[in-house]
């Protein structure tokens, strides 16, 4: 640390003692109105797609060339890494909305939300552990249920629309009430 940096730090500490900073209060980390469960749904669809791709991979025969075995191992590793990243993204997106957006009034209106979030977090972990398409599809269903509740808290009705992704599936989207 340079002498200049130490001097600036000392001056800042002195300033804070003379003029203590005021405590600021906010009800959430970021401005309201920008929460959206869409990314959690896309991440769940990605988990499905990675499981589909893994299932479609053909294991090379025992006498395959080393580069063919290496290519197979590389594809499995990449698909698995992407699947795990997106399962974790589902958890992150849902945790942020649940922790930062949902209020006690929302919890009273939708008492099933806490248990649903717990199930999503557990299902995302389960989806990471294996390659079961049924587990990945259950994750998407739970995230869709969460998205439906989220949009209801904003006074919107919802509908399911085709995702138009190779994984198939649907997205829960808001419609004007």
- At the first level of CATH, the class is Mainly Alpha
CATH superfamily caption:
Nickel-containing superoxide dismutase
Q: What is the CATH topology descriptor?
A: Four Helix Bundle (Hemerythrin (Met), subunit A)
The value of Rg in angstroms is 23 Å
Q: What does this entry look like structurally?
A:
It is a single chain. Helix content is 65%, strand content 7%. It has one domain: Nickel-containing superoxide dismutase (Four Helix Bundle (Hemerythrin (Met), subunit A)). With 177 residues, the chain is mainly alpha-helical. It is flat and about 75 Å long. It is built from six helices and two strands, in the order ααααααββ. Helix 2 runs antiparallel to helix 3 and helix 3 packs antiparallel against helix 5. The protein has a two-stranded antiparallel sheet.
How is this structure best summarized?
This protein is mainly alpha-helical.
Task: Please give a handful of descriptors for the protein shown.
mainly alpha, flat, 2 strands, two-stranded antiparallel sheet, 177 residues, Four Helix Bundle (Hemerythrin (Met), subunit A)
Write the layout of secondary structure elements.
Blueprint (H helix, E strand, L loop, with lengths): L2 H16 L19 H19 L9 H36 L2 H6 L3 H17 L3 H21 L3 E6 L7 E6 L2
Antiparallel strand pairs: 1-2
């Amino acid at each position: 640390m340079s002498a200049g940096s130490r001097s600036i730090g000392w001056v800042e500490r002195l300033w804070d003692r003379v003029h203590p900073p005021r405590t600021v209060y906010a009800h959430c980390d970021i401005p309201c109105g920008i929460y959206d469960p869409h990314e959690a749904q896309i991440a769940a669809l990605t988990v499905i797609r990675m499981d589909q791709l893994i299932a479609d991979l053909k294991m090379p025969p025992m006498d395959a060339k080393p580069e063919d075995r290496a290519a197979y191992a590389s594809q499995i590793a990449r698909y698995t890494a992407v699947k795990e990243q997106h399962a974790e993204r589902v958890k992150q997106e849902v945790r942020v909305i649940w922790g930062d957006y949902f209020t006690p009034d929302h919890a009273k209106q939708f008492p099933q939300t806490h248990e649903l979030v717990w199930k999503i977090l557990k299902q995302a972990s389960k989806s990471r552990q294996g390659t079961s398409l049924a587990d990945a599809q259950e994750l998407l269903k739970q995230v869709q249920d969460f998205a439906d509740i989220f949009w209801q808290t904003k006074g919107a009705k919802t509908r399911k629309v085709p995702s138009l992704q190779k994984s198939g599936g649907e997205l829960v989207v808001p419609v004007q009430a």
